[in-house]
Design a protein that fits this description.
The chain contains 13 helices and twelve strands. The protein has 400 residues and is of the alpha+beta class. It has a domain at 2-47 and 265-398. The strands form two sheets. The protein has a six-stranded mixed beta barrel with strand order 4-5-10-7-9-8. A two-stranded antiparallel ribbon has the order 2-3. A hairpin with a 2-residue loop joins β8 (170-173) and β9 (176-184). The chain is elongated. The two termini are 27 Å apart.
Length: 400
């Protein structure tokens, strides 16, 4: 053992290279896994915000006219009577919100921009699990009187008011004055690629009567209390609207009913595949680091052939030689994986900050990477140690 410590101090550069190989392998594996875990956390957070038990009824943006498909045609057949019929005949008193939207010009002070203005009902925000950072939400009384109040998304609030608290301020939407009563929490881009932070929300009736002058909806959101009833609710809504809109085989649907289930399942499957691939990448990093240690240890055995022969001539046995090299590899691997753990934590945090992901340090996978790295490094280092133990003492002493 003393000889092993002496050799480690003697060949400092070689020892440092082995430690660096072990550390980089562990750090790369931990960083890759933590990055994938951060991405999965983002997907799960987006799913929570999107709602796993939401059915969306929306108007199709195309119609068949004279036997030809026209794309982008405004469909006006999703109306209040449909909304009432679905709640009365199918779903009952569940949380729901109709929705209309259009890009309109906003003006606050000397600043102006065009942004999507969305008219919704009060249940829209609990359905989307969306909280405020300031102010309050509008309520049923505001819907009833078409109140000119508005909630700003995070991006809109920053663009128009900067660091100033906008609650209580006024802005003009298409020259109609509105009072800002709240600012919504930042959410980022959702699974449906919609940047909700760049939107402004007003009461549904205010949007329809004061801004857009329309009597139809773009979509209606329904929250289904029991997830197991999602498919049944979808079929029921399709059947009901098909009768109300007189849909036949000669007349295509002018609406579509979607749940978040398919989108969520697709995103989760993609996230799981990414996690699987990243774990393979992490394992590959450990193997590559082990091969680097193998190469360094192999060269070390060749360079120390005469030393091995001298020790054998002085009475050292083959197991003594083998365990000396294994001891050296164990010490270096221990230092390397410990350094890699700290380096992996540091790089994972920097990566999360640079990519905007949640910082996740997966302790189970980190410990698994440490154990695997230690075992692989010992296995790769044992091969050169076995070769050193099997050297013939006479030939070793004659080695040049």
């Amino acid at each position: 053992m003393k000889s092993g410590w002496r050799q480690l101090r003697r060949f400092r550069l070689r020892s440092a290279l082995v430690i660096c190989c072990a550390a980089l392998g562990v750090a790369g594996s931990i960083t890759a896994v933590n990055y994938a875990s951060g991405g999965q956390q983002r997907v799960l957070e987006q799913i929570r915000r999107l709602g796993t038990n939401v059915v969306v009824v929306s108007a199709k943006q195309s119609q068949t006219v004279a036997g030809r498909e026209r794309t982008g045609t405004i469909v006006t057949t999703l109306v209040e009577a449909d909304y009432v019929a679905i709640r009365r005949n199918l779903l009952g008193p569940v949380r729901a919100s109709a929705r209309v939207s259009a890009p309109l010009r906003l003006k606050a002070g000397f600043l102006s921009k065009i942004a999507p203005v969305v008219g919704v009902e009060p249940d829209y925000f609990p359905i989307k699990s969306w909280e405020l950072v300031g102010g309050s939400l509008f309520g049923a009384a505001d819907i009833k009187r078409s109140a000119r109040v508005a909630l700003l998304g995070h991006t809109v609030a920053c663009d128009l008011f900067g660091d100033t608290q906008p609650v209580g301020e006024h802005l003009f939407i298409n020259r109609v004055p509105f009072k800002i009563i709240g600012v919504l929490a930042e959410r980022g881009e959702g699974l449906d690629n919609t940047n909700e932070d760049g939107q402004i929300f007003v009461p549904l009736t205010a949007a329809m009567r004061r801004l857009l002058n329309r009597d139809y909806f773009d979509s209606i959101l329904f929250e289904i209390p029991d997830v197991t009833n999602m498919a049944q609710a979808e079929r029921g809504i399709v059947d009901l609207l098909s009768v109300r809109h007189r849909i036949t085989r000669f007349r295509s649907d002018d609406f579509q009913v979607q749940s978040q289930r398919d989108l969520i399942e697709t995103q989760l499957a993609s996230s799981e595949r990414l996690g699987f691939l990243v774990r393979w990448i992490g394992f590959s990093a450990l193997v590559v680091a082990g091969l680097g240690i193998l190469a360094i240890a192999w060269i070390a055995v060749r360079d120390r052939t005469k030393e091995i022969g001298t020790r054998r001539a002085l009475g050292a046995t083959a197991p003594d030689i083998f365990f000396q090299f294994v001891f050296e590899a164990t010490v270096l691997a221990t230092f390397g994986v410990a350094l890699g753990l700290g380096l992996g934590w540091w790089v994972s945090r920097i990566t999360a900050e640079q990519t905007g992901l949640v910082f996740v340090f997966d302790s189970f996978n980190a410990m698994l990477a440490l154990v695997m790295a230690f075992v692989l490094n010992l296995l790769f280092a044992s091969w050169p140690a076995l070769r050193a133990a099997r050297l013939d003492p006479i030939r070793a002493l004659q080695h040049e």
